[in-house]
Design a protein that fits this description.
The protein has 5 helices and 9 strands; from the N terminus they run E-H-E-H-E-E-H-E-H-E-H-E-E-E. It is α+β, with helices and mostly antiparallel strands and 180 residues long. A 5-stranded mixed beta sheet has the order 5-3-4-6-9. It has a 4-stranded antiparallel beta sheet with strand order 1-2-8-7, with no helix packed on it. The mean pLDDT is 96.
Length: 180
């Protein structure tokens, strides 16, 4: 089995490089049947933001997949979801996400809360290894990307995942029209 590759990034077997993964991400990959199919790439943390990374490493914006964390309340209960959408789109937070979570108002989770609860670094939060209480919503367009760049839980690395596997991440719910 060959590792996914992209642009000028050097692909390494993710499970062989735990130093490039946040602890919850490593644990999730070790317990997932497809964990060995993902590659990890070391990057300059100053180039971790999507547009800068795409330019620096010769990647198309359609290869990146951003994971945004949102939340809302219903009947006093906080409902949180991580939304995985292609980097050239935006999660439809005020319509599709709000309806999917069944909340009256939906907004981005405060950075401190997202970092603390996920055990991941800001700018590196990924759909792999999320807290069990969080839902994972994946836009259908991510599944069509041959290889997607997603977070590793750290700003200094990224995971490369065959797009079709994004819908098979444990807990994933594939949502048509999640992004616009």
């Amino acid at each position: 089995m060959s590792l996914p590759t992209l642009g000028t990034l050097e692909s390494l077997p993710a499970l062989d490089h735990p130093e490039l993964l946040a602890p919850p991400v490593l644990a999730a990959l070790q317990g997932w049947a497809h964990g060995a199919e993902l590659a990890v790439v070391a990057i300059d943390p100053d180039h971790a933001d999507t547009a800068v990374m795409a330019e620096t490493y010769d990647l198309g914006m359609d290869t990146g997949a951003n994971c945004v964390v949102v939340g809302g309340r219903r009947d006093g209960e906080e409902r949180v979801a991580a939304c995985l959408v292609r980097a050239d789109t935006r999660a439809d937070v005020n319509s599709v996400v709000k309806r999917t979570l069944d909340v009256r108002k939906c907004s981005f989770l405060p950075m401190e809360q997202a970092v603390e609860e996920s055990g991941m670094e800001y700018g590196g939060i990924t759909p792999v290894g999320l807290p069990p209480a969080w839902r994972l919503l994946v836009d259908t367009r991510v599944l069509d990307v041959p290889v997607a760049v997603i977070g590793s839980g750290l700003r200094r690395s990224k995971l490369l995942i065959p797009g079709h596997l994004a819908g098979e991440i444990p807990g994933a719910e594939v949502v048509e029209g999640l992004a616009r």
